[in-house]
Design a protein that fits this description.
The structure is a single chain. This protein is of the alpha+beta class and 252 residues long. It contains 6 helices and 9 strands. Strands 5, 6, 7, 8 and 9 form a 5-stranded antiparallel β-sheet that branches. Strands 1-2 form a two-stranded antiparallel ribbon. A two-stranded antiparallel sheet has the order 3-4. A hairpin with a 3-residue loop joins strand 3 and strand 4. It is elongated.
Length: 252
């Protein structure tokens, strides 16, 4: 009987061995914490994505901003860097400058008088005369180059101009699309012809191909009261665009 009890006792001991496959309490806590951390991270990521989506929708739905230009027109505002100039602005600037500079006319508009020109002292050594319109247009040329340009230009103005017997017509055949360079200058190619006429008839044609280099600057703004006719004309035709001519080169 004792032998049976001992045998049964031995069997019970075997059946009650601890199961090593079971996870301990400490390990369970680590797993729970890991799951909680993972869930929190997912919730945070979802929240960030939701905020980004809401902001993007607000930007997409934001009302357009319009501004009123000086001539009374309304345009949509588009954010650009301060050195950006649109093709339209550059084309208008170049066109106005070409006509003011190269289309010579001895007659003063709305007057019977003729243009006597503007006297300029060059480097305090010599003086020369330039047509009034060309002189006005020269304010769109950077200092230094402006004086050199006017002196050279004066050499090609015929004497008949200052006696009221000369007129020319400028034909602009092509103004290329502006190319913006790395130094933020704009390069524009011009193809044009000037037809000259004096009291004896048509004198001839002057064809020129030019590359004009433009530098963006702060647009001119009036700070005083009613501007003079000269300032008003200069601003409306040239200076409002915020551009200066830095060089003019021939090309084939």
């Amino acid at each position: 009987m004792n032998g049976k009890l001992n045998a049964n006792h031995h069997d019970n001991l075997i059946e009650l061995k601890p199961n090593k496959a079971l996870i301990g309490l400490k390990d369970i806590n680590k797993v729970v914490l890991s799951l909680l951390g993972l869930t929190g991270g997912l919730l945070l990521s979802f929240l960030i994505i939701l905020i980004l989506l809401v902001n993007n929708n607000r930007l997409a739905a934001r009302e357009k901003i319009f501004v009123e230009t000086l001539d009374g027109k309304t345009q949509q505002a588009v954010e650009k860097d301060s050195l950006f100039r649109s093709d339209k602005v550059i084309h208008e600037f170049v066109t106005n400058w070409l006509y003011l500079t190269y289309e010579l006319d001895s007659r003063i508009p709305n007057s019977t008088e003729h243009d006597v020109g503007v006297e300029i002292e060059y480097q305090k050594k010599e003086e020369f005369k330039i047509p009034s319109k060309t002189y006005t247009a020269s304010y769109a040329i950077v200092d230094g180059f402006r004086e050199e340009f006017l002196k050279k230009f004066a050499e090609f103005v015929p004497k008949e101009f200052y006696s009221g017997e000369f007129i020319s017509v400028l034909r602009i055949y092509h103004i290329s699309e502006p190319i913006r360079k790395k130094d933020n200058t704009y390069h524009v190619k011009i193809t044009a012809t000037r037809i000259d006429k004096n009291s004896s008839g048509e004198e001839g044609r002057v064809k020129f191909n030019k590359t004009i280099v433009l530098k963006p600057i702060e647009p001119y703004r009036q700070t005083t009261g009613e501007p003079s006719a000269f300032r008003n004309f200069l601003e409306n035709k040239l200076l409002k665009s915020g551009l200066l001519i830095t060089s003019i080169e021939n090309y084939e």
